[in-house]
From TrEMBL, chain B:
Belongs to the LptC family. This is Lipopolysaccharide export system protein LptC. Involved in the assembly of lipopolysaccharide (LPS). Required for the translocation of LPS from the inner membrane to the outer membrane. Facilitates the transfer of LPS from the inner membrane to the periplasmic protein LptA. Could be a docking site for LptA. It is a single-pass membrane protein. It is found in: Cell inner membrane. The keyword Disulfide bond does not apply. Component of the lipopolysaccharide transport and assembly complex. Interacts with LptA and the LptBFG transporter complex. HAMAP family: LPS_assembly_LptC. One of its GO terms (biological process) is Gram-negative-bacterium-type cell outer membrane assembly. PANTHER family: LIPOPOLYSACCHARIDE EXPORT SYSTEM PROTEIN LPTC. The keyword Membrane applies. It comes from Pontibacterium sinense.
Length: 149, 188
């Protein structure tokens, strides 16, 4: 939800290391991050904090998973990638390697996907390096089917 | 003449005790209690102590203050009441550790602190980190600390809770060993 960004970020993990000088915290092991309706699940997360609070979250996993409700009347958006970079201020998501987004029943896959959380705009790229088909794939559900389901 | 003299005597009678009281400087109730006698196995004790350690360049490196220190030769260690250990970093940071009780071996390699242990680490930038736990082993010379108990860490807009921690106040790094919960608030 739009107001997710105002909410505090809660993290749970097996262990963590904190570097007060650089403001970087690395969480390891069954990491779960929640912020309102936003959820990130990963094996390892690097969190960078600045003066205003958390600025950037980088999640690594096989695969890292992101989920958020874009709006009260919309279904959850789910995203996966071997690496997920969440820029908190810009509300941008970058999914790297085996990237996949399911947004309002439309599916996008590619080796890299940029997803704008505010506008729900998806930019998908594929460079074929990660063993994928080398092409971006989108499955757009017909509007009628979407409303019927 | 006699009335003047009488007045003088009365004034003397009134002022005398007050001046005597001031002259002694301490009221009966304020006179400090005699220090407790030696404990079993104790060879000496010291009250209101403050120890300062300097580095080889003459810079103040650490201070240890305690209202009472009891030394036990057989155990080659001292027991500290309400100790306060202050470590001064080369980068201008100051790390202050307090606890209800402490034990300090004669070689001063480490201090075991127990009961309401608090570490307040103030970086040279002014940023402050507060660590709260129940027991802690502090290694003053290397500015390391560790605990295997539950610990809470508070620093600007962030709170961590975990079980087990190792910390280096020289490098400003902390490792939380298990059951980590993090809470990051946004700046208002």
């Amino acid at each position: 939800l739009p107001e997710d960004r105002e909410k505090p970020i809660h993290v749970s993990a097996d262990s963590a290391s904190i570097d007060e000088k650089s403001g970087r915290t690395i969480y390891q092991g069954d990491v779960k991050i929640t912020q309102g309706t936003l959820l990130i699940e990963a094996d390892r997360v690097e969190m960078e904090r600045g003066k205003e609070g958390v600025e950037r979250v980088t999640a690594f996993g096989k695969q890292a998973h992101f989920r958020q409700k874009p709006d009260t009347d919309k279904p959850y958006t789910d995203a996966w990638g071997d690496t997920i970079i969440y820029k908190v201020e810009k509300e941008h998501l970058t999914l790297q390697k085996n990237a996949k987004v399911i947004s309002d029943k439309d599916t996008f896959t590619g080796s890299r996907i940029l997803y704008n959380l505010k506008t729900s705009v998806v930019d998908a790229y594929s460079d074929g390096k990660d063993g994928s088909s080398g092409r971006v794939e989108m499955i757009i559900q017909p509007k009628k089917d979407k409303d019927a389901q | 003449m006699s009335t003047a003299r009488t007045r003088l005597i009365i004034a003397a009678l009134l002022l005398g005790p007050v001046l005597l009281y001031w002259g002694l400087g301490i009221a009966p109730s304020e006179r400090s209690q005699p220090p407790k006698a030696l404990q079993e196995g104790e060879d000496y004790f010291a009250t209101d102590t403050r120890t300062r350690v300097f580095d080889d360049k003459g810079m103040l490196e650490q201070t240890l203050s305690t209202p009472r220190l009891d030394h036990y030769p057989d155990r080659a260690e001292s027991e500290l009441t309400s100790p306060e250990i202050v470590l001064y970093g080369t980068d201008g940071s100051v790390t202050t550790t307090t606890a209800t009780q402490g034990t300090l071996p004669d070689d001063r390699a480490k201090a075991l602190l127990t009961g309401n242990v608090q570490i307040k680490d103030r970086a040279s930038s002014g940023a402050t980190t507060l660590v709260l736990t129940e027991t802690l082993t502090l290694y003053p010379d290397t500015k390391l600390a560790e605990t295997d108990e539950s610990v809470t860490i508070l620093s600007d807009n962030t709170r961590y809770d975990a079980t087990g921690m190792t910390a280096s106040f020289e490098n400003k790094t902390l490792k939380l060993l298990s059951n980590v919960q993090g809470l990051h608030e946004n700046e208002d």
